[in-house]
Design goal:
221 residues; alpha/beta; Rossmann fold; four-stranded parallel β-sheet; two-stranded antiparallel sheet; 9 helices; 6 strands; 32% helix
Amino acid sequence: MRCSCCQKELVRNLTLRELFHSANLRCYHCEKLFTKIDQATSCPGCGRADSSKLCSDCRLWHQELGFVMKNRSLFQYDEGFRKWIEAYKFTGDYRLRGAFVNELAQILQNYRDYLICPLPLSKERFEQRGFNQVRGCLELTKIPLKDLLRRKELAPQSEKSRKARLEMEQPFELRVANGKIRNQKVLLVDDVYTTGRTLFHGAELLYKNGVEAVESLTFAR
């Protein structure tokens, strides 16, 4: 069997659990790349690690928008995660999408009554990359996904400064009739929580169209 992250042959004995859940196997080296966020000691708003009280970013969002969206992140955005996201998302090694599918499937069990909506890419970005990096990971969990949003043709987030991200215009439009989402609960899923601006844009649009509650999940914060 191979490591789901670096794709090298595993040179260790596997437990019974690992044998039956082999999609998420990581070697010792790659296991150390991912630093899990302790939900008990993270910001109750955005999920920032080591911030058990509402962080300054969330207080600013509450001041600006009147609400704080609950976000949960699996890992810290550190050097290890950065290397993974660069190889997967920007280099395009699609084999890496299963690096943490078990952790992803486990946390999604907390959202069984939510519509799971991966944030969409623009048409241009999808054609450049060939895949949606968030949907690629989510599909391995076998949990049904709902494409509720469509992205307008704007400049990619990764090319913007923090200030530009915070000031960006609404990048989404609704892809479905609002009658299909009214009084529903939605979980928005993205790869990295940076400023939160993109997720809040999605939440604002959904709330305006009658959604009851919006939370978010990101791979890293």
